[in-house]
Write the structure tokens for this entry.
Amino acid sequence: MAYLSLKEINKIYPNGFHAVHDFNLDIEKGEFIVLVGPSGCGKSTTLRMIAGLENISKGEFYIDGKLANEKSPRDRGIAMVFQSYALYPHMSVYDNLAFGLSLQGIDDEIIDERVQNIARILGLTDYLDRKPRQLSGGQRQRVAVGRAIIRKVGVFLMDEPLSNLDAKQRVTMRSEITDIHRKVGATTVYVTHDQTEAMTMADRIVVMKGGYVQQVGTPYELYFNPVNMFVAGFIGEPPMNFISSPVTDGKMTVGNKDIELSGVLSEEVIKAYEGKELVLGFRPESILLGERENALSFEAEVQLTELLGDNTNVYVTLGNDSPILKVDPHDTPKVDSTVTFSIPLESAYFFDKETELVIRKTN
Ligand code: ATP
């Protein structure tokens, strides 16, 4: 059995609000799992049920094969880092790290060994005598992480731990946390609304929306094989472009162009969608400029360009839609010009407009 196992977990708050529906997930020992989704999707609630800070309304939660629904938080072998990592302001970094262990009555010598070791892993050795106010945001965050991992627990839970840091610190801490995870090896469940954090840190990502799990998979699987429009639009930056059109005589109309679906989708699918709406999805970064073989080619009007350094985002008008194209900065088209671009067939996604489910998986 997996190390942590969530079976049909539901949360219904006392006011009757059903925040999490039938959440299923098996987490292997040492895995780094990221729960991601927009505000209010139920990710913190799920994390808090794992921690034992919220009771589970329905379903079963197992730790190492043992039912843990009724286990108190302190008996679960879990450490948690929250968004607001309240360090003790009057204590030094050393004492902040050592405090939890002293409370457990552990020998000073052993505490010292562990504090020095954690400080080494986290790059805090030179700051052990400082008070929290004498540290940068990133250093404080590292102390908070250190306070959790020093307890040598099997499971590490983090709820938006980087949200108080500026953009640069977040990038640094992202790789630091991944590095710490590699060194310490604790099973980790990490909550964020930031898809970049999810993509860069996770072994597997759980995408949630409105209390329901949408998809569970590796970053690669979610990026290349999203099961629905929500996941396709949530993972990737800028998000996937969606253009919808009814299917008439086996064709979709995009801008002023008819796309012959024969050879792109199976004949059964084309027949099934005749008279119904299909959505064409493509990632800004998957387009190629100009007309190409084995691709869907379009002409669009350039509205705006944003040079970002390594690429340019080109905002275009295509019929009633306004997709974004990512191009090499040297190929940046002029505003108000017409640009021809192609979507390689293997990078074109199709979705059912009504159910929002993917129709044909590519790659
Ligand atoms: P955020 O990123 O904003 O923290 P989240 O995905 O972590 O969002 P949760 O905090 O899990 O979302 O909340 C899920 C839903 O449950 C929200 O709609 C929230 O308003 C609701 N909720 C949270 N706590 C309670 C509560 N004690 N009573 C009733 N509803 C609650």
In short: Residues 44 and 191 are 7 Å apart (CA to CA).
